[in-house]
Amino acid sequence: MGRESQPSERRQKILNLTLAGVAAQVGCLTLIIILGAVLGGLWLDARFQTRPLITILLVLGSIPVSLILMFAVVRAATSRIQKNMQDPQE
Q1: Which Pfam families does the record associate with it (predicted)?
Q2: DSSP state of 87
Q3: Are 55 and 41 in contact (CB under 8 A)?
């Protein structure tokens, strides 16, 4: 390994860690949305005595919300990564 490959390896490691962070962020966001839908649905079902109905509706409704937020997070992260790849000094 020469000196020329060290900056490239370092840059690749930073990129890999950034991508892992984005994946973790998306995973946590999805988990929070689904848990919120389940817990909120169970609470509302207990309140209105409609046992499975509201929980099922909220969980089904959380799927598109999760996908939209996932897309937004990944899009923003991709934009930042591309900007940093073009201007590494900033």
Answers
A1: ATPase_gene1
A2: -
A3: yes
Task: Determine the Cα angle at 35 with ends 30 and 38, to 5°.
Answer: 130
What whole-number distance in Å separates Cα of residue 65 and Cα of residue 54?
A: 16
As a whole number of angstroms, the distance between CA 21 and CA 25 comes to: 6
Model pTM? 0.84
pLDDT digits (tens, 9 = 90+) for 17-47: 999 999 999 999 999 999 999 999 999 999 9
Q: How far apart are CA 49 and CA 54, in angstroms?
A: 10
Domains of the chain, by residue range, sit at 39-78
Q: Are 45 and 52 in contact (CB under 8 A)?
A: yes
Alpha-carbon distance of 70 to 54, in angstroms, equals: 24
